[in-house]
Every structure is written in C-alpha cells, then in structure tokens.
Specification:
Blueprint (H helix, E strand, L loop, with lengths): L5 H20 L8 H25 L32 E9 L5 E9 L1
Antiparallel strand pairs: 1-2
Helix pairs in contact: 1-2
Length: 114
C-alpha cells in the first residue's frame, strides 16, 4: 500500500470533517423554528458545502507542463527553374586590330553580337 502524502491526508480529513458537519446540520427543523429556521439552516449548509467543494477543487495539483514542441526539419524536393528566355542577341565588346597604313596599326573596341 503506497504511503499517503501530507496534502492528500489533509484533504481527506477536511473532507471527512465537512461531511460530518453537513450530516449533523441536516437535522429536520421543528415546527417551533418556523420556516425561517429551515431556510437559514439550509442556506448555511449550502454555503459551507459550497466552500468545501470549491476549496477541494481549487487546491488540486496543477497539471504537468506540456513537453516542448519538437522542431522537425522537412527537406523540400529540389525544383527545376527554367532560365528566362533570351530577348534578342547577346552582344559583347572585343578589341580589334585596325590598320592605319601598311606599317602602323591600333586597337579599337568593336561590338560583336551573336
């Protein structure tokens, strides 16, 4: 048999004491008390019982914290992206040898398009 902790033992003894008080206070009211005596006794028993039940419900242990969320890495499949279509010819500049006369020459830039 597992040992009871102090809080569980205290809770059970308080509950038993309140149950005994409720049973003893539930004695029938006599006619000499009139209606008011029965109403007051019933209201007092309801308040005491409500306080006892509320204390027992609110004094419960808090639930354990939720486990931390696990991060899962999902690798996406590679997606082929087609290169954009060409718009017109591709051009670049080249250095070309230009002859000035039969002996001398120079270099000039010339645009070459494909």
């Amino acid at each position: 048999m597992p040992a009871l902790s102090l809080s569980v033992l205290a809770r059970k003894s308080i509950c038993a004491a309140l149950l005994g008080a409720a049973v003893l206070s539930a004695a029938p009211a006599s006619a000499r008390d009139g209606r008011n005596g029965a109403l007051i006794g019933g209201a007092a028993a309801g308040v005491i019982g409500g306080l006892a039940v509320g204390a027992l419900l609110n004094n419960g242990a808090a639930p354990p914290p939720a486990p931390p969320a696990r991060r899962v890495y999902v690798e996406e499949e590679p997606v082929y992206v087609a290169p954009p279509p060409r718009r017109g010819p591709i051009c670049h500049y080249e250095r070309r040898k230009v002859w000035l006369d039969e002996v001398e020459f120079t270099y000039r830039r010339a645009e070459v398009c494909e």
